[in-house]
């Protein structure tokens, strides 16, 4: 999620994702706020959490401090200054793995048993993402579930009927209303989906709710591993020579939403991405 408000005032709220490894290009990721005062969608790395705010972490000292990085849509020409943020989590906060099952369990904890997320639909969603061939990208699973054509998504087109997105997926987006990036918050977004959605509550509808309300974009793997369409910076080969499996950049975790100012400690490390249009590392690794 991107522009959600902090859920610190609520006992339970959908978790935020933190990336286990710094992602340098996931289209669904967005920049961290430089002042640390507000951006529930920041991604962290063990970590993790991996993408955003939420989750818990083992006792102090059990893991390295979490670090937050982000991916970008169009990193070639990205101009906003960006930091890698390393921070310490509050006592008792533990990281969780952002598998699809985790999201739905957190939603049950937040809203109670609403029947909005049928177990059969959850099963179908998980099974679809569990059947990827060795060299198939995760966008293929998203296409299989939602109908949205992978080539159009990777070319930057928004989900729509024009690119093949099916009725359940689009109806779920409409029912959920504004995303956290448009000034809403995740809890309201999910509540809208639960109350307003009138179609079949199938795997596509559930995927739509996660897409709209939790920033689980089409590159989200649903299994707690990050995936990147750019060259993986940890594999020293050009992007066109990296295998699909080498594009999985590391483990992800989720943490409870929080402001940087509420954390015991945090530090931002500015990233030198180079001049826009001259970032050869995106292709060379």
Tell me what you see in this structure.
This protein has 285 residues and is of the alpha+beta class. 26% of the residues lie in helices and 12% in strands. The strands form 2 sheets. Strands 2-3-4-7 form a 4-stranded antiparallel beta sheet, with no helix packed on it.
Average residue-wise pLDDT: 75
How would you name the oligomeric state of the polypeptide chains in this document? single chain
Helix content: 25-40%
What radius of gyration results from the CA coordinates? 18 Å
Distance between the termini: 27 Å
How many distinct beta strands?
7
Spatial strand arrangement across the major sheet: 2-3-4-7
- Class of secondary structure makeup: alpha+beta
Gross morphology: globular
Low-confidence residue ranges: 1-64
How many DSSP H or I helices?
8
- H/E order of the elements? EEEEHHHHHHHEEEH
Strand content: 5-15%
Q: Main β-sheet: number of strands, strand sense, barrel status?
A: 4 strands, antiparallel
Question: What's the helix and strand layout?
Answer:
Layout (H helix, E strand, L loop, with lengths): L15 E4 L23 E3 L21 E3 L13 E6 L11 H12 L7 H11 L8 H9 L3 H5 L12 H10 L9 H11 L6 H12 L10 E3 L20 E8 L9 E6 L10 H4 L1
Antiparallel strand pairs: 1-6, 2-3, 3-4, 4-7, 5-6
Helix pairs in contact: 2-7, 5-6, 5-7, 6-7
Give a quick summary of the entry.
The chain has 285 residues and is α+β, with helices and mostly antiparallel strands.
Offer a few descriptive terms:
285 residues; alpha+beta; four-stranded antiparallel beta sheet; three-stranded antiparallel beta sheet; 8 helices; disordered N terminus
């Amino acid at each position: 999620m991107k522009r959600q408000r902090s859920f610190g005032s609520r006992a339970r709220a959908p978790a935020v994702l933190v990336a286990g490894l710094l992602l340098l290009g996931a289209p669904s990721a967005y920049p961290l706020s430089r002042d640390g005062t507000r951006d529930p969608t920041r991604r962290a790395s063990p970590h993790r959490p991996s993408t955003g705010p939420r989750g818990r972490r083992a006792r102090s000292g059990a893991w390295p401090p979490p670090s937050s990085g982000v991916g970008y849509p169009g990193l070639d020409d990205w101009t906003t200054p960006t930091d890698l943020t390393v921070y310490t989590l509050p006592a008792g906060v533990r990281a969780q793995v952002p598998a699809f099952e985790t999201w739905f369990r957190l939603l049950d904890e937040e809203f109670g048993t609403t029947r909005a997320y049928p177990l059969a639909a959850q099963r179908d969603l998980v099974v679809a993402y569990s059947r990827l061939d060795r060299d198939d990208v995760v966008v293929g699973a998203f296409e299989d579930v939602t109908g949205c054509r992978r080539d159009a998504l990777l070319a930057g087109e928004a989900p729509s009927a024009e690119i093949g997105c099916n009725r359940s997926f689009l109806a779920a987006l409409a029912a959920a209303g504004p995303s956290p990036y448009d000034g809403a918050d995740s809890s309201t977004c999910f509540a809208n989906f639960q109350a307003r959605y009138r179609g079949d509550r199938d795997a596509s509808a559930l995927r739509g709710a996660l897409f709209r309300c939790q920033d689980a974009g089409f590159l989200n793997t649903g299994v707690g591993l990050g995936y990147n369409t750019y060259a993986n910076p940890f594999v020293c080969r050009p992007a066109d020579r990296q295998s699909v499996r080498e594009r999985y950049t590391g483990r992800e975790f989720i943490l409870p939403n929080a402001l940087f100012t509420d954390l015991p400690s945090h530090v931002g490390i500015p990233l030198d991405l180079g001049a826009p249009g001259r970032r050869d590392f995106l292709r060379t690794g």
